[in-house]
Design brief:
Helix 4 crosses helix 5, helix 4 runs parallel beside helix 8 and helix 5 packs across helix 8. Strand 8 and strand 9 form a beta hairpin. The chain folds into two domains: 72 residues, Roll (Ubiquitin-like (UB roll)), CATH 3.10.20; 218 residues, Cathepsin B, Chain A (Alpha-Beta Complex), CATH 3.90.70.80. The protein contains ten helices and 13 strands. Strands 4, 5, 6, 7, 8, 9 and 10 form a seven-stranded mixed sheet that branches. A three-stranded antiparallel sheet has the order 2-1-3, covered by helices on one side. It is of the alpha+beta class and 343 residues long. It is found in: Cytoplasm. InterPro entries: OTU1_Ubl, OTU_dom, Papain-like_cys_pep_sf, Znf-C2H2_OTU1-like_C, Znf_C2H2_type. Pfam families: OTU, OTU1_UBXL, zf-C2H2_OTU1_C.
Length: 343
């Protein structure tokens, strides 16, 4: 049991003991959708203002988030190869080809290589490798690139796979607004759940998150298919599959959060060597999709998902009890409230 007097150091030590993850690499998120919790400047658990019923998500960070050294530098560069054949030529024996430089961007926050395991601490063990990467016979692998946990993870996951950029949410939210207004026959009130103008104002707010509507519009905007894998159901839904698009990208959904999927030339390869755009219909792409399914299956078996249809939430603004993501989304649309806790 945690007491208000329990020190932050004791909390981290207990989590380290339970998960096997060093305290320096433990990242804690709270609420729904999950938001990173800063432990800096807090001496004990009472100072963190936890409330009864708060949902805590614990995950391993890819670089130390406290003490023991500085975080490794990261860059916005990603998916530098314009053709999938370039990746196919890479191997651990021959080494990767030089990546073409990308324009410098603002550096992102340190990113964890493993997705958050909502509800379970066991998912943070070292045995989680299979949920982070799936190797293929030639030495390349499908890897899970974790996107920052906020209300914009869908947009930033798509931005990473399409352009190699982690922080595209403001631009892509505007793309959704323009897409909805430009096609009133497709995106009417019956589909959106509210008047198109109201929906546009809602999705343009950075506190709100996207879903199938946004993936459909972004597929059309980029003229690429988006293969969205769901860890809970192990389904793969391909947006834009009815169009004659020549490339495909992959994202991963755990019930609360979207991450990006990429192909790396070898395990542990840096992100600037990722390939995220795959040619549609080739044998190689089918091999990649099969590897992605293995990764999804491993994540499912590790229960790295949240059943958003059945969990119970309480609105932190008005106190209303809600069941499942559907009711939470409807409540958020109706009230503008976006602070939920599980109970």
């Amino acid at each position: 049991m945690l007491l208000r007097e329990t020190t932050v150091t004791e909390l981290l030590a207990r989590l380290e003991s339970l998960t096997g993850v060093p305290a320096s690499h433990l990242e804690i998120l709270t609420g729904f959708p999950p938001k990173a919790l800063s432990l800096e400047g807090h001496d004990n658990v009472g100072a963190l203002h936890f409330r009864h019923g708060d949902l805590l998500t614990v995950r391993r960070a890819g670089a130390p988030v406290r003490g023991g050294g500085a975080a490794a530098p990261s860059s916005e560069a990603g998916a530098p190869s314009s053709t999938f054949e370039e990746m196919h030529a890479m191997s651990p024996r021959t080494g990767p080809r030089a990546a073409r430089p990308q324009a410098p961007q603002a550096p992102p926050a340190p990113c964890a290589p493993a997705a958050s395991g909502v509800r379970t601490l066991a998912s943070l063990s070292s045995a989680e490798d299979e949920t982070r990467e799936a190797r293929m016979p030639d030495g390349t692998c499908v890897v899970r690139r974790v996107i920052e946990s906020d209300n914009s993870c869908l947009f930033n996951a798509v931005g990473y796979t399409m352009e190699g950029l982690r922080y595209k949410a403001p631009v892509l939210r505007q793309v959704i607004v323009e897409g909805v207004l430009a096609d009133p026959l497709t995106w009417d009130e019956a589909v959106l759940g509210k008047a198109p103008v109201d929906y546009c104002a809602w999705i343009d707010d950075p506190h709100h998150w996207g879903g199938a509507i946004e993936l459909s519009i972004l597929s059309k905007q980029y003229k690429r298919q988006i293969a969205a894998f769901d860890i809970q159901t192990q389904r793969m839904d391909v947006y834009g599959s009815d169009q004659d698009y020549r490339e495909l990208v992959m994202v991963l959904y755990d019930g609360l959060h979207y991450d990006a999927l990429a192909v790396a030339p070898y395990p542990g390869a840096p992100e600037d060597m990722d390939v995220t755009r795959l040619p549609v219909g080739t044998a190689r792409t089918e091999e990649v999709l099969a590897a992605a399914r293995r990764l999804v299956r491993a994540a499912h078996e590790a229960r790295q998902f949240t059943d958003t249809a059945s969990f119970t939430l309480r609105c932190g603004r008005c106190g209303q009890g809600l069941k499942g993501e559907k009711e939470a989304v409807e409540h958020a649309k109706a009230t503008g409230h976006s602070d939920f806790t599980e109970y």
